[in-house]
Amino acid sequence: MLDESTHTWLRGLLDRHTAVAGTVHVVREDLLHIAAAHNIPPRVQEVTARIPLGKGMAGLAWERDRPVQTCNLREDDSGAVEPGARAVDGKAAVALPVHDDDGTVRAVVGLAWLDERELIDGELASIAEDATSLPVTVPPV
Q1: Per-residue pLDDT tens for 124-133?
Q2: What is the tens place of the pLDDT at every residue in 96-141?
Q3: Which part of the chain is the GAF domain (predicted)?
Q4: What is the value of pTM for the model shown?
Q5: Are 101 and 69 in contact (CB under 8 A)?
Q6: Residue 108: strand, helix, or coil
Q7: For residue 69, what is the domain's CATH number?
């Protein structure tokens, strides 16, 4: 069972940025642990329940400490998109690191849209700023 309050927060974030699907993964020890998901197929939630540093878009965003995006989840050949992510009903997607007060990455938030797009710096900054409202104590699953 995913965290209901984090799911509610995620739904608000997705609505504010017109995204159709998304996830919240929190850093616990040496892995990202899923805490919330919206419109993510159950199989994808299973596969992404725990993500190592550098794997997939979320793991790369954590490792690089910067947003990782794709214009089309299904057709991306950059190596950043894992096969399971292609099952998400969306095209464009971004994974953004969320920091704690000392600048350490504490979570990675993912958003997906139905259309192809490349987010420009202003859009990324707006989403990243909004993502800082992620509750401080997000329990992993």
Answers
A1: 999 999 999 9
A2: 999 998 999 999 999 999 887 888 889 999 999 999 999 876 655 5
A3: 18-122
A4: 0.86
A5: no
A6: strand
A7: 3.30.450.40
